[in-house]
Amino acid sequence: MGARRAPRGGPRARRAAALIGDLAEAAPERRNTLRWLFSGPLEGDKRALARRCVADLRASGRYPEDPAVREIVAELSAASPEFAALWAAREVEVQRTLTKRAVHPVAGELELDCEILPVPGTDQRVVLYTAAPGSPSRRGLELLRDG
């Protein structure tokens, strides 16, 4: 078993890796939120997040012929009855803000506000995670930052 290498990049990249893992080490197909969401059971807050993410994918309908969009819809429809049902519901919702709740192995329970910012001229988005000042989630993020 090899030693884990430090995440590439500067302090922000290292903080992001401490929070969500080093995506540079993940296989490309594991870097997709939808694949991650539908790879296991949808319970609690994960169910609501899955619904919003599928509605956001449907909002990308300006690219109906995009092979990547068609591929992931076909793949997840075949693999997940939950995805197929959500896709068939035809909800459309562009994601701009949401709250994510998770249990992190180091930081503990986290409730994070997410701001999703489109990068002009691209299909990329920047996601900013913040926590309320003085909250346990803020202290958890500080623990990751300082660790």
TrEMBL record:
- Coiled coil location: none
Highest taxon of the lineage: Bacteria
Does DNA-binding count among this protein's keywords? yes
* Alphabetized GO MF terms: DNA binding
Q: Is Cell inner membrane a UniProt keyword of this protein?
A: no
Q: Where is the MmyB-like transcription regulator ligand binding domain?
A: 15-144
Q: Sorted alphabetically, which keywords does the UniProt record give?
A: DNA-binding
Q: Which PANTHER family match?
A: BLL4672 PROTEIN, BLL4672 PROTEIN-RELATED
Q: What is this protein called?
A: DNA-binding protein
Question: From what organism does this protein derive?
Answer: Actinomadura litoris
